[in-house]
């Protein structure tokens, strides 16, 4: 769920549209990854138990009331609040401040921590089994720095630019959480380093599993496909699959799937008399998304993996 206006849930007029929004919001709130963002002069939220979240603000301040503490986030800082934490918040800015928060789905940080601790060779043997680990983040103000802020800003810019893809949000939440964990626990190894240094048999097995995932994407091109679906096809956890896929192909699974769909749509345009709406349905895209994809720069190849690939020997 990606919101680009701060919801004023207690004071929204009782109209059919507002009732429908509240119903949908509370049905999803606290169960999935969520971005809440928007510019406001005043926004106040009462005490509530939340999921793990990271908060930042631009052009003003936002105050959080946590365990009888008052913590004020400004342009130079961000704040992480742990899963299950109760807190209230207040934003008061005569000129209007831009608030941006990411709420992670319950248990995601524990899943990633468990996988970060699990070496690649063990992950190949265990498959997609998750080994949760306890994860508590420092809840004091932190200054923006080179490990977390670039991913946080990338997500923010993408949302402002119009990205609303839930699969994209799942990928970005995993990338961001990995960096948050690495910052909290400096000794945590980066997966990319482990993958590059993996022994040849392990890398061959990883490539074989990634090819299974690509086969799955081809077979389910017209259907709604999630990161979890594809990772299961590769017999890897979501964390190891996402990091291995990007390390191997230079694209995230979502980007790869989008390019597969675009290329299939181009082939159908050339070889059939189907209209754009019919083609969009066949490749699992909306008409608008297909138009945007077809208008993208086609001069630069997305990735060499679309060339015929050799089998794993």
Question: Summary?
Answer:
By secondary structure, this protein is an alpha+beta fold. Helix content is 45%, strand content 19%. The chain is built from 12 helices and 8 strands.
Task: Report on the architecture of this protein.
- The structure is a single chain.
- By secondary structure, the chain is of the alpha+beta class.
- It has two domains: 1-187, Jelly Rolls, CATH 2.60.120.10; 189-307, Arc Repressor Mutant, subunit A (Orthogonal Bundle).
- It has twelve helices and eight strands.
- The chain has helices at 16-28, 108-116, 120-126, 149-161, 166-184, 191-196, 200-219, 227-234, 238-249, 253-271, 276-282, 287-295; strands spanning 2-3, 34-49, 53-58, 62-66, 69-73, 77-81, 86-103, 142-143.
- Strands 1, 2, 3, 4, 5, 6, 7 and 8 form an eight-stranded mixed β-sheet that branches.
- Strand 4 and strand 5 (69-73) form a beta hairpin.
- Helix 2 crosses helix 5 (166-184).
- The longest helix has 20 residues, at 200-219.
- It is globular and about 60 Å long.
- The two termini are 42 Å apart.
- Mean pLDDT is 79; it is low at 190-194 and 297-313.
């Amino acid at each position: 769920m990606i919101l680009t206006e701060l919801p004023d849930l207690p004071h929204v007029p009782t109209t059919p549209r507002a009732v429908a929004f509240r119903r949908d919001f509370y049905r999803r709130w606290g169960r999935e990854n969520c971005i809440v963002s928007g510019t406001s002069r005043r926004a106040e939220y009462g005490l509530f138990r939340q999921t793990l979240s990271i908060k930042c603000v631009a052009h003003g301040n936002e105050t959080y009331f946590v365990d009888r503490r008052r913590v004020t986030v400004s342009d130079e800082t961000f704040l992480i609040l742990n899963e299950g934490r109760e807190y209230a918040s207040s934003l008061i800015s005569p000129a209007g401040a831009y608030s941006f928060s990411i709420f992670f789905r319950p248990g995601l940080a524990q899943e990633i921590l468990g996988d970060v601790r699990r070496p690649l060779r063990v992950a190949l043997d265990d498959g997609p089994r998750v080994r949760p680990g306890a994860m508590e983040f420092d809840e004091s103000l932190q200054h923006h720095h080179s490990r977390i802020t670039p991913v946080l800003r990338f997500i923010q810019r993408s949302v402002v630019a119009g990205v609303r893809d839930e699969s994209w949000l799942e990928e970005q939440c995993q990338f961001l959480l990995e960096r948050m964990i690495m910052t909290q626990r400096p000794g945590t190894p980066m997966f990319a380093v482990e993958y590059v240094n993996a022994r040849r048999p392990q890398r061959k097995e990883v490539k074989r599993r990634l090819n299974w995932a690509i086969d799955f994407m081809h077979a389910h091109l017209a259907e709604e496909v999630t990161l979890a679906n594809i990772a299961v096809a590769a017999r890897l956890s979501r964390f190891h699959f996402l990091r291995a896929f990007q390390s191997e192909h230079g694209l995230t699974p979502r980007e790869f799937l989008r390019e597969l769909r675009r290329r299939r749509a181009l082939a159908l345009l050339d070889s059939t008399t189907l209209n754009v709406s019919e083609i969009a349905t066949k490749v699992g895209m909306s008409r608008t998304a297909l138009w945007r994809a077809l208008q993208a720069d086609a001069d630069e190849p997305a990735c060499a993996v679309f060339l015929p690939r050799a089998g794993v020997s």
